[in-house]
Amino acid sequence: MFTRRPDLAVKTDLTREDLAGHLYESLHNKIMPLNDDLIVYPGHGQGSACGKNMSSETTDTLGNQKKTNYALDPTLDRETFITVVTDGLVPPPQYFPKNAVMNKHGYKSFDTVLETGMTGLSVEQFESEMKRDGVIILDTRHESKFTEGFIPNSIFIGIDGTFAPWVGVLIEDLNAPVLIVADPGREEEVITRISRVGYDNTVGFLEGGFEMWQNAHKPVERISNMDPSTFVSAYPSISSAILDVRKCSEYDSQHFTGVQNFPLDKILTSIGELDPKTSYYVHCAGGYRSVAAASIMKRAGVHEVVNILGGFDAIAELNTLETTQFHEPVSML
Protein backbone atom coordinates (compact mmCIF):
# COMPACT_ATOMS: atom_id res chain seq x y z
CA MET A 1 0.00 0.00 0.00
CA PHE A 2 1.14 3.55 -0.57
CA THR A 3 -0.16 7.04 -0.07
CA ARG A 4 -0.04 8.82 -3.39
CA ARG A 5 1.53 12.22 -3.93
CA PRO A 6 -1.06 15.02 -3.97
CA ASP A 7 0.32 17.14 -6.82
CA LEU A 8 -0.30 15.18 -10.02
CA ALA A 9 -3.90 16.01 -10.91
CA VAL A 10 -4.22 19.53 -9.62
CA LYS A 11 -7.25 21.60 -10.64
CA THR A 12 -6.72 25.34 -10.96
CA ASP A 13 -8.60 26.05 -7.74
CA LEU A 14 -6.88 23.38 -5.64
CA THR A 15 -3.31 23.47 -4.33
CA ARG A 16 -1.33 20.37 -3.46
CA GLU A 17 -1.92 21.25 0.21
CA ASP A 18 -5.67 21.27 -0.42
CA LEU A 19 -5.44 17.85 -2.04
CA ALA A 20 -3.25 16.54 0.78
CA GLY A 21 -5.95 17.65 3.18
CA HIS A 22 -8.58 15.73 1.22
CA LEU A 23 -6.26 12.72 1.27
CA TYR A 24 -6.01 12.96 5.07
CA GLU A 25 -9.79 13.00 5.37
CA SER A 26 -10.19 10.02 3.03
CA LEU A 27 -7.67 7.96 4.97
CA HIS A 28 -9.03 8.83 8.41
CA ASN A 29 -12.74 8.77 7.57
CA LYS A 30 -12.88 5.94 5.02
CA ILE A 31 -9.83 3.68 5.27
CA MET A 32 -8.60 3.58 8.86
CA PRO A 33 -11.98 2.58 10.38
CA LEU A 34 -12.00 -0.61 8.28
CA ASN A 35 -11.08 -4.00 9.78
CA ASP A 36 -7.39 -4.76 10.28
CA ASP A 37 -7.64 -8.08 8.44
CA LEU A 38 -8.65 -6.35 5.21
CA ILE A 39 -6.31 -7.35 2.35
CA VAL A 40 -4.80 -4.44 0.43
CA TYR A 41 -3.04 -4.46 -2.93
CA PRO A 42 -0.72 -1.81 -4.41
CA GLY A 43 -1.85 0.52 -7.15
CA HIS A 44 1.73 1.04 -8.27
CA GLY A 45 5.00 -0.85 -7.90
CA GLN A 46 8.13 0.16 -6.04
CA GLY A 47 10.06 2.84 -7.92
CA SER A 48 7.02 4.63 -9.32
CA ALA A 49 7.02 8.41 -8.98
CA CYS A 50 3.33 8.31 -8.04
CA GLY A 51 3.92 7.94 -4.31
CA LYS A 52 6.40 8.15 -1.47
CA ASN A 53 8.57 5.43 0.01
CA MET A 54 6.68 2.61 -1.70
CA SER A 55 7.25 -0.99 -0.73
CA SER A 56 8.04 -3.85 -3.08
CA GLU A 57 5.40 -6.03 -1.39
CA THR A 58 2.53 -7.21 -3.58
CA THR A 59 -0.05 -7.65 -0.80
CA ASP A 60 -0.53 -6.76 2.86
CA THR A 61 -3.18 -6.30 5.54
CA LEU A 62 -4.57 -2.95 6.55
CA GLY A 63 -3.60 -3.75 10.14
CA ASN A 64 0.07 -4.08 9.23
CA GLN A 65 -0.11 -0.93 7.13
CA LYS A 66 -1.43 0.93 10.15
CA LYS A 67 1.71 -0.16 11.99
CA THR A 68 4.27 0.52 9.25
CA ASN A 69 2.92 3.13 6.83
CA TYR A 70 4.02 6.63 7.82
CA ALA A 71 0.86 8.16 6.35
CA LEU A 72 -1.40 6.05 8.60
CA ASP A 73 0.28 7.17 11.82
CA PRO A 74 -2.70 7.91 14.11
CA THR A 75 -0.73 10.59 15.97
CA LEU A 76 -0.49 12.78 12.86
CA ASP A 77 -2.98 15.65 12.94
CA ARG A 78 -4.25 17.11 9.69
CA GLU A 79 -1.71 19.93 9.41
CA THR A 80 1.25 17.67 10.25
CA PHE A 81 0.02 15.11 7.72
CA ILE A 82 -0.12 17.77 5.01
CA THR A 83 3.43 18.84 5.82
CA VAL A 84 4.73 15.26 5.78
CA VAL A 85 3.15 14.14 2.51
CA THR A 86 4.13 17.30 0.63
CA ASP A 87 7.67 17.50 2.01
CA GLY A 88 10.41 16.60 -0.44
CA LEU A 89 8.17 16.42 -3.50
CA VAL A 90 10.20 17.04 -6.62
CA PRO A 91 8.47 18.09 -9.85
CA PRO A 92 6.66 15.12 -11.42
CA PRO A 93 8.46 13.39 -14.32
CA GLN A 94 8.19 15.39 -17.53
CA TYR A 95 6.27 12.63 -19.31
CA PHE A 96 3.33 12.67 -16.86
CA PRO A 97 1.55 15.75 -18.29
CA LYS A 98 2.48 14.73 -21.83
CA ASN A 99 0.83 11.34 -21.28
CA ALA A 100 -2.27 13.12 -19.98
CA VAL A 101 -2.48 15.10 -23.24
CA MET A 102 -2.01 11.91 -25.27
CA ASN A 103 -4.79 10.19 -23.33
CA LYS A 104 -7.09 13.12 -24.01
CA HIS A 105 -6.38 13.60 -27.70
CA GLY A 106 -5.52 10.07 -28.82
CA TYR A 107 -2.46 8.16 -29.94
CA LYS A 108 -1.28 5.46 -32.33
CA SER A 109 -2.73 2.01 -31.89
CA PHE A 110 -0.35 -0.35 -30.14
CA ASP A 111 -0.54 -2.78 -33.06
CA THR A 112 0.84 -0.04 -35.33
CA VAL A 113 3.57 0.87 -32.84
CA LEU A 114 4.62 -2.75 -32.49
CA GLU A 115 4.53 -3.48 -36.21
CA THR A 116 6.85 -0.55 -36.94
CA GLY A 117 9.10 -1.08 -33.93
CA MET A 118 9.62 -4.77 -34.63
CA THR A 119 11.53 -3.96 -37.80
CA GLY A 120 14.86 -5.75 -37.63
CA LEU A 121 17.64 -3.56 -39.02
CA SER A 122 20.96 -4.70 -40.41
CA VAL A 123 24.07 -2.90 -39.20
CA GLU A 124 24.07 -0.78 -42.36
CA GLN A 125 20.37 0.08 -42.02
CA PHE A 126 20.78 0.86 -38.34
CA GLU A 127 23.72 3.13 -39.10
CA SER A 128 21.66 4.94 -41.73
CA GLU A 129 18.75 5.45 -39.31
CA MET A 130 21.17 6.96 -36.79
CA LYS A 131 21.36 10.01 -39.06
CA ARG A 132 17.74 10.97 -38.32
CA ASP A 133 17.24 14.30 -36.52
CA GLY A 134 16.77 13.84 -32.79
CA VAL A 135 17.25 10.08 -32.90
CA ILE A 136 17.67 8.22 -29.61
CA ILE A 137 19.75 5.03 -29.49
CA LEU A 138 18.34 3.19 -26.49
CA ASP A 139 20.54 0.37 -25.20
CA THR A 140 18.59 -1.89 -22.84
CA ARG A 141 21.16 -4.60 -22.09
CA HIS A 142 22.58 -5.26 -18.62
CA GLU A 143 24.80 -2.47 -17.32
CA SER A 144 27.84 -4.76 -17.23
CA LYS A 145 27.47 -5.50 -20.94
CA PHE A 146 26.93 -1.83 -21.75
CA THR A 147 30.11 -0.62 -20.04
CA GLU A 148 32.14 -3.21 -21.97
CA GLY A 149 31.06 -1.68 -25.28
CA PHE A 150 28.23 0.32 -26.84
CA ILE A 151 27.32 2.27 -29.95
CA PRO A 152 28.48 5.92 -29.64
CA ASN A 153 25.79 8.30 -28.33
CA SER A 154 23.69 5.49 -26.89
CA ILE A 155 21.67 6.02 -23.73
CA PHE A 156 21.71 3.12 -21.28
CA ILE A 157 18.45 2.22 -19.55
CA GLY A 158 18.48 -1.48 -18.71
CA ILE A 159 15.30 -3.48 -19.27
CA ASP A 160 15.78 -5.35 -15.99
CA GLY A 161 15.86 -2.20 -13.84
CA THR A 162 13.22 0.45 -13.22
CA PHE A 163 13.01 0.67 -16.97
CA ALA A 164 9.94 2.51 -18.23
CA PRO A 165 9.95 5.24 -15.55
CA TRP A 166 13.59 6.07 -16.34
CA VAL A 167 12.82 6.16 -20.05
CA GLY A 168 10.14 8.73 -19.22
CA VAL A 169 12.57 10.81 -17.18
CA LEU A 170 15.64 10.64 -19.42
CA ILE A 171 14.14 10.92 -22.90
CA GLU A 172 12.45 14.32 -23.12
CA ASP A 173 10.80 14.09 -26.52
CA LEU A 174 8.03 11.50 -26.67
CA ASN A 175 8.04 11.83 -30.46
CA ALA A 176 11.77 11.26 -30.90
CA PRO A 177 12.64 8.37 -33.25
CA VAL A 178 14.00 5.52 -31.13
CA LEU A 179 16.45 2.83 -32.21
CA ILE A 180 16.64 -0.20 -29.92
CA VAL A 181 19.71 -2.21 -28.93
CA ALA A 182 18.52 -5.19 -26.92
CA ASP A 183 19.45 -8.73 -26.07
CA PRO A 184 18.08 -10.83 -28.95
CA GLY A 185 14.55 -11.97 -28.19
CA ARG A 186 13.67 -9.10 -25.88
CA GLU A 187 12.93 -6.43 -28.49
CA GLU A 188 9.14 -6.78 -28.29
CA GLU A 189 9.25 -6.41 -24.51
CA VAL A 190 11.26 -3.20 -24.84
CA ILE A 191 8.94 -1.69 -27.46
CA THR A 192 5.86 -2.65 -25.44
CA ARG A 193 7.12 -1.15 -22.20
CA ILE A 194 8.25 2.17 -23.64
CA SER A 195 4.96 2.48 -25.52
CA ARG A 196 3.11 2.20 -22.22
CA VAL A 197 4.70 5.48 -21.11
CA GLY A 198 4.04 7.25 -24.39
CA TYR A 199 7.05 6.48 -26.61
CA ASP A 200 5.38 5.26 -29.79
CA ASN A 201 8.01 6.15 -32.38
CA THR A 202 10.33 3.15 -32.30
CA VAL A 203 11.94 2.92 -35.76
CA GLY A 204 13.38 -0.56 -35.35
CA PHE A 205 16.00 -2.62 -33.55
CA LEU A 206 19.51 -3.84 -34.33
CA GLU A 207 19.07 -7.35 -35.71
CA GLY A 208 21.25 -9.77 -33.79
CA GLY A 209 22.01 -7.19 -31.09
CA PHE A 210 25.21 -5.33 -30.27
CA GLU A 211 27.37 -8.29 -31.24
CA MET A 212 26.50 -7.68 -34.90
CA TRP A 213 27.68 -4.08 -34.63
CA GLN A 214 30.90 -5.16 -33.00
CA ASN A 215 31.55 -7.91 -35.53
CA ALA A 216 31.15 -5.36 -38.31
CA HIS A 217 34.05 -3.40 -36.76
CA LYS A 218 31.92 -0.30 -36.27
CA PRO A 219 32.90 2.42 -33.75
CA VAL A 220 32.48 1.34 -30.13
CA GLU A 221 32.72 3.30 -26.90
CA ARG A 222 33.31 1.99 -23.39
CA ILE A 223 32.91 3.15 -19.80
CA SER A 224 35.66 2.43 -17.31
CA ASN A 225 34.70 0.62 -14.11
CA MET A 226 36.36 0.91 -10.70
CA ASP A 227 35.87 -1.58 -7.89
CA PRO A 228 34.94 -0.32 -4.40
CA SER A 229 38.35 -1.07 -2.84
CA THR A 230 40.22 0.90 -5.50
CA PHE A 231 37.68 3.71 -5.13
CA VAL A 232 38.28 3.90 -1.38
CA SER A 233 42.04 4.08 -1.93
CA ALA A 234 41.66 6.82 -4.51
CA TYR A 235 39.04 8.77 -2.57
CA PRO A 236 41.33 11.40 -0.99
CA SER A 237 42.60 12.55 -4.39
CA ILE A 238 39.29 12.33 -6.32
CA SER A 239 36.65 13.36 -3.75
CA SER A 240 35.95 16.70 -5.46
CA ALA A 241 35.10 14.90 -8.71
CA ILE A 242 32.79 12.23 -7.28
CA LEU A 243 29.13 12.43 -8.30
CA ASP A 244 26.45 10.67 -6.26
CA VAL A 245 23.58 10.29 -8.74
CA ARG A 246 21.03 8.91 -6.29
CA LYS A 247 17.85 10.84 -5.58
CA CYS A 248 18.05 13.83 -3.26
CA SER A 249 16.17 11.93 -0.56
CA GLU A 250 18.69 9.07 -0.67
CA TYR A 251 21.61 11.47 -0.55
CA ASP A 252 20.08 13.40 2.36
CA SER A 253 19.50 10.13 4.18
CA GLN A 254 23.24 9.30 4.10
CA HIS A 255 26.18 9.98 1.83
CA PHE A 256 29.97 9.97 1.80
CA THR A 257 31.38 13.15 3.29
CA GLY A 258 32.35 15.74 0.71
CA VAL A 259 30.66 14.00 -2.24
CA GLN A 260 28.41 16.07 -4.51
CA ASN A 261 24.82 15.07 -5.21
CA PHE A 262 24.08 15.05 -8.94
CA PRO A 263 20.70 13.27 -9.19
CA LEU A 264 20.02 11.25 -12.29
CA ASP A 265 16.44 12.51 -12.37
CA LYS A 266 17.74 16.07 -12.84
CA ILE A 267 20.67 15.33 -15.12
CA LEU A 268 19.10 16.69 -18.30
CA THR A 269 18.90 20.18 -16.80
CA SER A 270 22.16 20.05 -14.82
CA ILE A 271 24.51 18.40 -17.34
CA GLY A 272 25.78 21.81 -18.44
CA GLU A 273 27.32 22.33 -14.99
CA LEU A 274 29.94 19.65 -15.67
CA ASP A 275 33.39 20.42 -17.07
CA PRO A 276 34.12 18.30 -20.17
CA LYS A 277 37.83 18.37 -19.28
CA THR A 278 37.33 16.87 -15.80
CA SER A 279 37.43 13.16 -14.95
CA TYR A 280 34.33 12.24 -12.94
CA TYR A 281 33.68 9.22 -10.71
CA VAL A 282 30.02 8.27 -10.58
CA HIS A 283 28.11 6.09 -8.15
CA CYS A 284 24.47 5.41 -7.30
CA ALA A 285 23.12 2.88 -4.81
CA GLY A 286 23.92 -0.33 -6.68
CA GLY A 287 25.33 0.37 -10.14
CA TYR A 288 22.35 0.75 -12.49
CA ARG A 289 21.69 4.49 -12.39
CA SER A 290 25.38 5.38 -12.42
CA VAL A 291 25.78 3.69 -15.81
CA ALA A 292 22.72 5.54 -17.12
CA ALA A 293 24.26 8.80 -15.88
CA ALA A 294 27.63 7.96 -17.42
CA SER A 295 26.01 7.25 -20.78
CA ILE A 296 24.26 10.61 -20.77
CA MET A 297 27.44 12.38 -19.70
CA LYS A 298 29.35 10.82 -22.59
CA ARG A 299 26.56 11.74 -25.00
CA ALA A 300 26.90 15.35 -23.79
CA GLY A 301 30.65 15.40 -24.39
CA VAL A 302 31.85 14.58 -20.86
CA HIS A 303 33.93 11.57 -21.86
CA GLU A 304 36.20 11.05 -18.84
CA VAL A 305 33.78 9.25 -16.56
CA VAL A 306 34.37 6.22 -14.33
CA ASN A 307 31.56 4.02 -13.01
CA ILE A 308 31.93 2.70 -9.44
CA LEU A 309 30.86 -0.94 -9.32
CA GLY A 310 28.26 -1.81 -6.71
CA GLY A 311 27.61 1.82 -5.84
CA PHE A 312 27.08 3.27 -2.39
CA ASP A 313 25.97 -0.04 -0.88
CA ALA A 314 29.12 -1.92 -1.90
CA ILE A 315 31.42 0.93 -0.88
CA ALA A 316 29.71 1.35 2.50
CA GLU A 317 30.12 -2.36 3.23
CA LEU A 318 33.88 -1.78 3.39
CA ASN A 319 33.22 0.51 6.37
CA THR A 320 36.17 2.71 5.47
CA LEU A 321 34.92 6.08 4.20
CA GLU A 322 33.31 8.63 6.49
CA THR A 323 29.58 9.08 5.95
CA THR A 324 27.02 11.52 7.25
CA GLN A 325 24.73 10.32 10.01
CA PHE A 326 21.92 8.14 8.74
CA HIS A 327 18.41 9.62 8.66
CA GLU A 328 15.43 7.48 7.78
CA PRO A 329 13.96 8.94 4.59
CA VAL A 330 10.24 9.63 4.56
CA SER A 331 10.27 10.38 0.86
CA MET A 332 12.00 8.25 -1.74
CA LEU A 333 10.94 10.49 -4.61
Which terms summarize this structure?
15 helices, Oxidized Rhodanese, domain 1, alpha/beta, 5-stranded parallel sheet
Give me the strand/helix succession: HEEHHHHEHEHEHEHEHEHEHEHEHEH
Rounded to the nearest angstrom, the distance between the terminal CA atoms is 16 Å
Low-confidence stretches: none
Count of runs of 4 or more consecutive helical residues: 15
CATH superfamily of the largest domain: Rhodanese-like domain
Mean pLDDT over the full residue set: 90
Radius of gyration: 22 Å
**CATH class category name of the largest domain:** Alpha Beta
Structural overview:
By secondary structure, the chain is of the alpha/beta class. The chain folds into 3 domains: 71 residues, no CATH class; 121 residues, Oxidized Rhodanese, domain 1; 94 residues, 3-Layer(aba) Sandwich (Oxidized Rhodanese, domain 1). It is built from 15 helices and 12 strands. It has a 5-stranded parallel beta sheet with strand order 3-7-6-4-5. The chain has a 5-stranded parallel beta sheet with strand order 8-12-11-9-10. A two-stranded antiparallel ribbon has the order 1-2. The longest helix is centred in the N-terminal third of the chain and has 16 residues. The mean pLDDT is 90.
List the helices and strands and how they pair.
Blueprint: H1 16-31, E1 39-40, E2 60-61, H2 62-68, H3 78-86, H4 95-105, H5 110-117, E3 120-121, H6 123-129, E4 136-139, H7 143-148, E5 154-156, H8 163-170, E6 178-181, H9 187-195, E7 202-206, H10 210-215, E8 224-226, H11 228-238, E9 242-244, H12 248-253, E10 260-261, H13 267-270, E11 280-283, H14 289-299, E12 305-308, H15 311-317
Parallel strand pairs: 3-7, 4-5, 4-6, 6-7, 8-12, 9-10, 9-11, 11-12
Antiparallel strand pairs: 1-2
Helix pairs in contact: 1-3, 5-9
